[in-house]
């Protein structure tokens, strides 16, 4: 498992399955020996993952395995103590959360983080912040660029909301939306930043089976129409096994298995991690 | 479709309402003035009320829209006040037209406060919550102390400024030539200022402040600031720069506070730096909170009512500040305590019951 | 050297007063998560009560001190019960404004009862201890008994509070409430009672601070408490608000800085220097000297 040899990077043998259509292209995300310590505790250790250009990948594992921490490392909410993250061939070392967003990673949050006092449309407009620009003075004095660009804001926001058929909700306060709609709005807001890689943290949490089925279709639809990669954390195995091409299993901050849905389902390590040692012995 | 039109109409009238209220108030007060129905001490309150309204609007941008508690806003007001006074007194000969000189002085006060806001914002906006609050308090006190050490005068050779931090210097040390004008005398503050502020200028300043703030809120940067307030981490995750956007809002806020200060400073012949202490910052904060965070019309109304309340209570003289305090506590309890809210609602219901005998019948319907 | 030492003693004495007030501030903040702006005015009330008992009714100083503590304790509990308790679930700004209202209320009530002209407050203990005897007054170094008493009281209170919060049942309840009120309630802790007791302790300390402060700096007026209140709050933040040793350390440091700044830099700019140091410390350590910085959980 050597990665660095005299400063030269040697590709980590990855068991994750990159879809055939992405094979010739450079991967969108490469994590090499990624890790973080909190006061001596290794929350994530030696995390190696490659995600293909248009892959839908899954990150699963028991509670407390460090899945969300991986997302926080990827978006630089936490600064990694070890390893590197390459995004579309660019090193992200030393970048801030804001810069990471500009480089092309967008995310949703496990505990929904919307701008609750803003309307649904305004939430999406904030997502478009770096794609449509005019100066503060142009905004205050209502100069021509304000009007043209605000029109563009509106049109783009509506277009994005139409992914989930949410145009009717545009003027509702985000905090007043039902739970499922809040999760969908987070995805729309993330997509508004024009990402190359979309991170979804438990997108199906709290959804009923019908909503989940619809969400699965939509994730695939988003990948196909935006031509982006999706990395998702999810406990709903039906969703993970249904749409993820490559799956990575995390336990106690370390990867214990990588592979396709079938490989993961039959992996004894994974079964042990989920069900515990005793059940194996029985 | 009909519904959509209606909501559009509402939002237009909603954003125009503050302007309408201000202009209407201006005409009513001018009418009262012209017909001689405005008492002398009320006339004297007109400019201060305008200043406090602009201060409240400005602080509402920081506290209500940006969501950061600032308890040193009077510091920026005093920066504006004293630089405005210096500008005005220095320009007395160069710009004889008072309206133009007032405009220039206000602009000068605003600029100085903007620079001050930027410099102070650099450290302050890095902090969060109560720590940010205490540092704004600290800066407010620092500004006051530094102005107390200033001795400024103007003569035909230009401005003379002394920094009297040992407390040993006086105006004589400025060495003004014949015909020179001392403007700020250390702890005594500005003295011998020519009063040029007017109610009209105050109303124009309020309208400008409203225009800037309301348009700012509904623009790209304003949205970014509100997004940061609502959820900083989510805002960062979609690429919104926290420091830059907060700084823009904070500088706009301090600029307006400086403009209000200049107007205030030029309304008095003498003005000491001690006027702009911690209590003044708190006073403005009370306007903002009682008027409603983020509610500009609310700030205008509460600044007006609370500035005039002690004056109205002048008959009770020594009890007026006590009454003010009690009103403040009761209003906060009534608007924020669930128990008190329920009690008030019950009282209101009882009053209704007394007034309209038909109510009990409806009430039983309501219970079903 | 002698001059330096005398400024050091002044600074320690002033710092101890700040520390005692800051201890009250920090306890109330730690548990109620509110800036109790009325705390400084409780000091003033303590000063007036002890003044009346000692100089109008001729009681011994310790009776006056105890009575002042009793009255302030009651006052603190009453304020908490009537003004702050109904706002437990309200936004923190609403509580802050209410605290400001209470502060105005206390100041203006005092103004009505005791009038605005400052009273001269003779020290509760006269005399001083000669440390270095010199030929002239400027050669000799002495420390007033009241300074010694202030520093002593401050140390005793700090140690007492530390032992109280770590060893007693009520102290543990306080720490639990300050971490998580909901969880504390589920564990059977009476949150309202715990907060009341915290206010009672904080206010009793304010009374002690009031008596000691007025003895060292002998003027008493309805606004006596405001500035020391703000400084003590600064001290609490400086040391890390919510932390008892932090308040002690912060108080002493603020007192020392103020004393030395007055002596060696500028009387006018003493407050500026104190606040400037505070700003610098907060930029380097955003949660104060001994405070714990808790990053937001994502």
Concise overview:
The complex is a heterotrimer of chains A (282), B (368) and C (298). Chain A has 282 residues and is of the alpha/beta class.
Provide keyphrases for this structure.
heterotrimer, A: about 280 residues, alpha/beta, six-stranded mixed sheet, four-stranded antiparallel sheet, C: about 300 residues, mainly alpha, two-stranded antiparallel ribbon, 4 strands
Topology as H/E string of chain A? EEEEEHEEHEHHHHEHEHEEHHH
Structural class of the secondary structure composition of chain C? mainly alpha
* Gap from first CA to last CA of chain A: 33 Å
Radius of gyration of chain C: 19 Å
Binned strand content of chain A = 15-25%
Report helical residue fraction of chain C.
over 70%
Number of domains of chain A: 2
The helix/strand series of chain C, from N terminus to C terminus, equals HHHHEEEHHHHEHHH
Rounded average pLDDT of chain A: 89
State the helicity of chain A in percent bands: 25-40%
Textual characterization of the structure:
- The complex is a heterotrimer of chains A (282), B (368) and C (298).
- Chain A has 282 residues and is α/β, with parallel strands linked by helices.
- Helix content of chain A is 37%, strand content 22%.
- Chain A is built from eleven helices and twelve strands.
- In chain A, helix 3 crosses helix 5 (144-161).
- In chain B, 70% of the residues lie in helices and 5% in strands.
- In chain B, strands 2-1-3 form a three-stranded antiparallel beta sheet.
- Chain B starts with a helix and ends with a helix.
- Chain C is mainly alpha-helical and 298 residues long.
- The relative contact order of chain C is 0.20.
- Chain C contains eleven helices and four strands, in the order ααααβββααααβααα.
- The mean pLDDT of chain C is 90.
- In chain C, helix 3 packs across helix 8 (191-216) and helix 9 (226-239) runs parallel beside helix 11.
- Chains in contact: A-B, B-C.
- At the B-C interface, helix 5, helix 10, helix 12 and helix 13 of B face helix 4, helix 9 and helix 11 of C.
